[in-house]
Amino acid sequence: MVIIDSLIASNYTNCKIMSSSYGVAMQFIFGVRDDIRNSLHFWNESKIVYVAGHNIIDYNIEERTQRFYPPMEGSTVISAITMSAKRNLVAFAESQRTRGAIISIYDKNQRKRRCLISTNSNANNISAMAFSTDKDERYLLILYGPPATSLLYWCWNSPNHKGTLSLKHPVESSKCSFNPLDGNLCVLTGKKTFLLIQIEPTNDNVRESFSLKVLSDKVNAEAEHSHNYTSHCWTADGVLVVSTDQGEILALNSAGGLIGMVNIHKRIDSLEQHQYGIALACEGPTVITMRFSKDNKEEMFKETSVHLLGDEGDRVTSLAANPVLDKMLVCITTGKQLLRLGMNKKPQELISNFHSKSIIGMDVCVRKLSLIHISEPTRPLYISYAVFCLKKKKKKK
């Protein structure tokens, strides 16, 4: 295996691991994609999944090792990634010029592709996906775009989708998910978009099919708030928490009714469930954790920790909370950094200080390292460089 072009710089157009006759195998990839929202997930307390170049990276935090999920032959870009609620399945969508969008589903335990979905659609890009929360997690909600114009309900071990919902207007900056307590209830949020959707089986005796019915297309709240919904998540007891670009955090019941609200007066870019409440990323950039109490109307959201990330021009595009260690968060910033937040309020690089500029040089180390890429500096005080670690394959006897 050999690396071509700039995986580290996250310029994904030509970044692929390709089979070759050079007799080397990929060991490590430095870098991260920052242009895919919600692209960071925990397998368990010590493993995360994220996108680098044109590859899905499975990174062990304790052992500091990587494993790779290879892209499909002929695909051009990875556009979306999601993980099931039980953390045993991961799906990622790729665009192809000829066959539309392709979705690969991998099993954590078997470490192999369980399913390959070919949408055969004119829309060759998928902007968001979500696994269902039923016992088998066998359904996948798929949003085409951008701009997103249709929502598909797909049984991922079946060749055809089971239901579809045409959207009245294109949806930008979107996220979709299922209620953890009701696998037939899902939500779609985005810029000027809030859709609470009920999924019901139809009376079709020939094949399995479902109807997607919009229960509510707005937040049922008398209090004024922004309608540019930037993110959302569900709490463990089925409360829907929605954030806006004006810093409002709305707690909603399963019917979309407002049960609580707080305003931090900063744009919120990402929102995820935390072990005891929620974790959010807002402008600054800042990551805040809050304890959520459904029954405490006066202090429904109580701030528990604040992490300042440093570079004021950066924003957080993906945020993930450790499912076991409640003090540990990881995030991806627009500065193409993968950061770890813990007991120390100062963020730490999870792997190293990544760079983000174009590669301007390359050389070969004969004895130890096989390939070194040198890039333009991205920090005045640092010499920015990156190393692809390759090792020779042993010849089979």
Give a written overview of the molecule.
- The protein has 397 residues and is mainly beta.
- It is 0% helix and 52% strand.
- The protein is built from no helices and 34 strands.
- It has strands at 2-3, 17-18, 24-28, 41-42, 47-52, 55-60, 65-69, 75-83, 89-96, 100-107, 112-118, 126-131, 139-144, 148-155, 161-171, 175-179, 182-190, 193-201, 210-216, 229-234, 240-244, 248-252, 258-263, 268-274, 277-282, 286-292, 301-308, 316-321, 329-333, 338-341, 348-349, 359-363, 371-375, 385-392.
- A four-stranded antiparallel sheet has the order 3-34-33-32, with no helix packed on it. A four-stranded antiparallel sheet has the order 4-5-6-7, with no helix packed on it.
- A hairpin with a 7-residue loop joins strand 28 and strand 29.
